[in-house]
Structure formats: C-alpha cells, structure tokens
Amino acid sequence: MISKIKEKRINLVLASSSPRRKELLEKMGFSFTLERVDIDEVITSKDPDVAVREIAVHKAEACRSRLRAEDLLITADTLVYASGQFLGKPKNHKEAKEMIQCLSGSIHEVYTGVAICYKGEIHSFAEKTQVEFYELEESDIAYYLTHYAYLDKAGSYGIQDWIGLIGVKRINGSFENVMGLPTSRLYQELRRILEE
C-alpha cells in the first residue's frame, strides 16, 4: 500500500501535535507532513466511540480548507473512559493524580477516533482497547508524576512510559491505540479508501 501512495502521488498529512502519533506513523513507513490543528475538543456524546470520532472529524473539518487535491489528511483523538466518565488530558498535577488514582486497580477503556479526509470525503472509525492496572502505591503515582510528562496524555499516562511498564496488568486490544493511533486498523482503513 505504501507503493500505491507513492504511485498516486498522494501527500499524507498528519494533523496532530502528538509526538506519539508522529512516531507511530513514521514506524508504519509513511512519509508525511505535519499540520497543527487547534480546536475546542468538546465532548457532545456520552458514547465514547461516538465522542472520539466526532472530535477527530471536527479536527479534519478544521483542516479541510487548507488541503490540496493530492492530500490525504489523518486526524485522531484519544480518550480514556473509566468508571462511567471521560478522562481527557489533565489540566494540572492535582487532576493528573486523581486520574491515575481512578485507574489504579481497575479496568478502563481507551478509545481513539480517527478521521481520514481524501478527495473531499471524510471517513472515520474508532478503536477500543481495555487496559487493566495493578493497584498502584501512592509512592509509584508520585514518582511517575514527578519524572514523566503527563499533561499531554489522555488519562494522564503513557502506556509506553514507566507507569505502563510497572502498572499495566493486561491489555485487550491494540497497544498502539493506547498510545494514540491504532496503526493496524488505520493501515486497513487506508487500504480500503484507496481502493474505492
């Protein structure tokens, strides 16, 4: 499929400020340009699957007017859903600590919505991964919040960081989805769109 993108002279554009999404797309073997998108990420649905897709589509709509004919735009949004509530990015240390405490010793879900805009059409999908944490000690939570960046992460944690290494008991679904981009599903969706 990568050769098909080159043959069709498609310019992939990732509209995201997430270093993890950039890293994952690079690991997939794609060449792409980065675009910044700033929108108010307002959650309008109580259904996490719908909520993340709506935000991803809203990001794509915000960028659509800047696209050229050969551009294929990818946007995404990730939310953690725990105890019946959405956990986005924390605003401060206190909120981050409360989020990690909420996740400790329990199972939560990570949803990533992805929107792909190509030839004027927006396609979207959502992916869900279940994550179970061991019971975390307060000292572990304090260590993580002191030594690692958390303000740019849904649910205040990066599964690829120290807290994921010591705290995650098991996951059911895509590891990369928890990082912010469900790579294998994205690849399949891109293949389907380019074959239409």
UniProtKB/TrEMBL annotation:
Write the record's keywords in alphabetical order, separated by commas.
Cytoplasm, Hydrolase, Nucleotide metabolism
The record's section on SUPFAM superfamilies has: ITPase-like (SSF52972)
Task: From the UniProt record, list the reaction(s) this protein catalyses.
Answer: UTP + H2O = UMP + diphosphate + H(+); dTTP + H2O = dTMP + diphosphate + H(+)
Tell me the active site.
Answer: 77 (proton acceptor)
Gene3D superfamilies per the UniProt record, alphabetical: 3.90.950.10
A Gene Ontology cellular component where this protein is annotated is: cytoplasm
- Key word Signal present: no
Cofactors (names): a divalent metal cation
Which GO biological-process labels does this protein carry? nucleotide metabolic process
Q: Name the predominant localization.
A: cytoplasm
Cite the position(s) of the site with description Important for substrate specificity.
Answer: 20, 78, 160
Q: What is its EC number?
A: 3.6.1.9
What Gene Ontology molecular function terms does this protein carry?
A: nucleoside triphosphate diphosphatase activity
Q: Which residues cross the membrane?
A: none
Is Thylakoid a UniProt keyword of this protein? no
Please, which domain of life does this record's source organism belong to? Answer: Bacteria
Where is the protein found, in the record's own terms?
Answer: Cytoplasm
Q: Which InterPro entries match?
A: ITPase-like_fam, Maf-like
- Top-level EC class, please? hydrolase
State its role: Nucleoside triphosphate pyrophosphatase that hydrolyzes dTTP and UTP. May have a dual role in cell division arrest and in preventing the incorporation of modified nucleotides into cellular nucleic acids.
Identify its protein family: Belongs to the Maf family. YhdE subfamily.
Official protein name in the record: dTTP/UTP pyrophosphatase
Q: Organism, per UniProt?
A: Candidatus Sphingobacterium stercoripullorum
Q: Which gene encodes it?
A: maf
